[in-house]
Amino acid sequence: MIVKIWALVFLPESADNFFMSVSDVIPVATRVLLNPYVIGAAIAVILYINFVYFVAKYRKKPPQPKRKKVIAAPAPAPAAPAEGGGDASGGGEAAAPAE
After folding, report:
1. Which residue has the higher pLDDT, 6 or 62?
2. d(Cα 30, Cα 43) in Å, to the nearest integer?
3. Helix H segments across 1-99?
4. How confident is the model at residue 55, as a pLDDT?
């Protein structure tokens, strides 16, 4: 008896009533996907998943140590050339390179 009930419920006599062709499925699928409730639910699920991902990956950044301001010493004044215009040897001519 259980087999007869199962056959009546799950095995329809006509396969045309049980299966839909692709041309029958496309209009139904477009109406379902363009339904405002489906669009709203999809947006809500996406926002929820993004929030859960944010909470799972959130790490509080450690506070940055304050940098101390370094006061630079004033730059030394460039040394003035000697009055003679030559080097310390006093010869007046440039020394020849050593060979």
Report:
1. 62
2. 17
3. 2-10, 22-33, 36-57
4. 92
Tell me how far apart the alpha carbons of residues 17 and 14 are, in angstroms, rounded to a whole number.
6
Token look-up 């299966």 returns: 19
Which of 50, 22, 47, 52 shows the shortest CA–CA distance to 39? 47
What are 22-31's pLDDT values in tens digits? 888 899 999 9
Which tokens belong to 42? 């999809």
User: For residues 43 and 36, is the Cβ–Cβ distance under 8 A?
Assistant: no
Max distance between CA atoms of the chain, in angstroms, equals: 130
Per residue in 47-80, pLDDT (tens digit) is 999 999 999 998 877 888 888 877 777 777 777 6
Determine what percent of the chain falls in helix, strand and coil, rounding each to the nearest 5.
45, 0, 55
Structure tokens at 22: 């692709």
Q: Could you give the C-alpha distances from 52 to 22, 57, 59, 92, in angstroms and in order?
A: 37, 9, 14, 82
